[in-house]
Design goal:
heterodimer; A: 513 residues; mainly alpha; 22 helices; 0% strand; globular; B: 503 residues
Chain lengths: 513, 503
Amino acid sequence: MPKKNLSGDGTAAPIDTWWWLSHKGTTTSFLCISLFALLIRSAVSMFPYSGAGTPPKFGDFEAQRHWMEITTNLPAIDWYRNGTHNDLTYWGLDYPPLTAYQSYIHGLLLRFFNPDSVSLFSSRGHESYIGKLLMRWTVLSSDALIFFPAALFFVLVYHRNRAKSQVAWHIAIILLNPCLILIDHGHFQYNCISLGLTLGAIAAVLCGSEVLTCVFFTLALSHKQMSAYFAPAFFSHLLGKCLRRKNPILSLLKLGIAVIVTFVIVWWPYLHSVDDFLMVLSRLAPFERGIYEDYVANFWCTTSILIKWKKLFTTPSLKSISLAATVLASLPSMVHQIFSPSDEGFLYGLLNSSMAFYLFSFQVHEKSILMPFLAATLLALKIPDHFNHLTYYALFSMFPLLCRDNLLLPYLTLHLLFTLIYHSQLPKTKASSFSFTNFPGYVFLLRTHFVISLVLHVVYLTIQPPQKYPFLFDALIMILCFSYFVMFAIYTNYTQWNFSSHFRSVDKEKKQI
Amino acid sequence: MDGDRRHLLLWFFAAATAVKLLLIPSYRSTDFEVHRNWLAITHSLPLSEWYFDETSQWTLDYPPFFAYFERFLSFFARLLDPKIVDLHKGLDYSADSVVYFQRITVIFSDLCLLLGVYRLTRKVETLRRNLICVLVVWSPGLLMVDHVHFQYNGFLLGWLLLSVSFLQDGRDLIGGFLFAVVLCFKHLFAVAAPVYFVYLLRHYCWAGLATGLRRLVALGSVVVAVFAAAFGPFIYNGQIQQVISRMFPFGRGLCHAYWAPNFWVFYIMLDKGLAFTLRKLGFDVQVPSASFTGGLVGDSSPFAVLPQITPLTTFVMVLLAITPCLIKAWKKPQPGLVGRWIAYAYTCGFLFGWHVHEKASLHFTIPLAVVAVQSLEDAKHYFLVSIVSCYSLFPLLYEPQEYPIKVLLLLLHSVVMWLGFTALYSDEKALKKEGGEIKSKFEMGCIEKGYLIGLVLVEIVSQFLHPYFLGDRYAFMPLMLISTYCAVGIMYSWIWQLLKILT
């Protein structure tokens, strides 16, 4: 029978309708929800991928296929080098070696079942039913083998000392991450691997095994350099923890060695000469592409409507400016963690540093919203209302990209699915003394944002933009999302600072008792 | 708290709708073109030509109410894209507009199923109600057949469930009326007509001479009115012969191309086995010229050794199988048991019928879902039969793109069923403790577990081992293996249901 919570004030709390789902323990409900998550991913995989049927360049799908072609046909040292067989201008590799190794393994699989899709040169622009299916299955398997176990690890560690009533909801929020599903299984990418490794690193931090953290995070960085969005949080938290130990230098040394050993093992083919190493690095940081591309909801792109950054400054100086801005933006959260590291604060730190990078970094893509969004899913129980809005605007910021990929139906469906899951069991939050909702005009601001976004959805789909400003609607969407992200970032940064003072006051109370 | 329970039902429906929307670009069978053609026929031609038109090979072979339903839908189809309803230009039309339109009509028509479930579970307690909802609205078989393969079973089963709900409430006249409506949508549902007839006669009309006669007349006139509304125009036009011949095409063989897992699979295997042994022993056994899936070729039988089976034989066998249930219904007509009896009738129809599609297993698994939460034995039985019937539907979706989807649907359904049933039948004493493992009375027996594991083995053999070792040779073997193995499970279900009804 479902348990009824009878609180002392006489009002009966709502009957736990999902009791039957989680009564057999966390792992079983995780299994159930992960089956559903895999089903949704398989269904989204049936939709078109990026660049489907658009020669000559196609899109990310063709890029990944091309990398499989290169890695299975050439020796490792040639993968990043411009050569007769490897034309770097046609989707050259621009992720670190772990992506290349992963492409190699998947390429072997493709070669076994469908050799035409990865044969050197002749497979350029190869599109077929079985080719698409095999590629989609490589993403699905990577997700199931890396992201899902990491999520289970995280959930087990995070919820070990909490009430079990919210576990299923949290698992569903993490696994049914709409942005990740649409990008990885729709648009086509392998973010699940780097995000899964990062998630594993985060779980290891909560577990207390810091060496494992370093190993996982280095692997994540070696898969996608964008994982560096989380680097300040990891660095500051681990530094803060080491400084509190008896022998800080020894702890730091242990962690440093773990990082270096992992790094050397992964980058081994490229460490034989400085030139090789620099060759790879130059591919990872394509500064010549400019401070922003397309319309992404970050600071540089949004303010470029008023301040033409690209015209006022040169690229090297823009590099330094954006670096300074990013460091400044992530400084408060870093400082907080160095001086008072805590598990909860660490999770906020992840969110704040990745958001700071998203807003101020160089060459940010719309897909990079995945990083702050992952951190937000981990904190979903603590900031449910804000998380709800963030999901909406994160998806909306990717809306033009998804429309170009003909993924409108999955976009709308995943919105619906997320709303259903979010409202299936609203988490109870304690009313904090500083509540954004108390801030005058906040609710009004939020409502106007929402109404404008609905209008923009319809306008973008139905009306043709004026000839003079062909990207007018993209720009409007970008401005709207940017303004929400800024509000969100202010809130989370403030919460993290507040957290330490609350923490300290709780400590003081404990001492007094 | 009625608003709350309605919200939850809508929640389940919305979650299922999300999955259905994502299934829109999946594989479509020829049934998709069939229904599109019916949209075209009912829209472009006058009523007098609906059952005569042969522009396309997919002629109208459902009763008139379904034709009127297609006519209603065709109005919206024409607004969206006139080519959909064009009789000649729309042939094999597969643009986005028609795919989205037809798929969305199936999703909308599932509201009927939701209504049926809502009405049936109004008086059931929370956990059971949620479980029934999950089992019916999220039924993997329904998702695979309706939303991938393409059919309107959810819509039709909704009407059936509504009819059962009214019978369970004791409102027999409306129940009978709704069943007559269902019959005029799809005549395949007529298998349960004997049960309805006997039950309504005994329960509704057996109430003293005057009242009984009055009720009998009322019931009769309601049924006649429904049939008149459906077939009236065609009787007026003198076309009833053509309509009947379209609805009952006995030119088809005993078995469908994919053998449905019913009794005849064993009969055919036995025949082949006997023929083989007898030939080895030296007897002269002729190889039959007719096939099982083709039509009746004159008087020749597709069976080498055993006696021939005719449509009449199957009809008699079905009736014989239903008889114990009819006797029970006559002796003691209880509203609470109607669902069981109807499910039993459809099981018999599935097992012994003529030219049965494996899709017909939905006709008994959906009503059984409502019965499954009534006792521990029912739950165990349903666990087995729903997995077997869902697995038997796998050959319908034979393309590799849908493979992960159908496997995941079945696995998810099994896990959810297991969680739901263990929660429903958990040990009361253990619940008082917070944390720790909660023991449940829901435990499958060894044979059942073995059978289900065998299902996994059958899948591995038919899907992976057979193509790897034998390639394209003996292509019929995997299908035969699946049919036979599932037929065992469905026979077990029939016997179990029969025993349950008799005791």
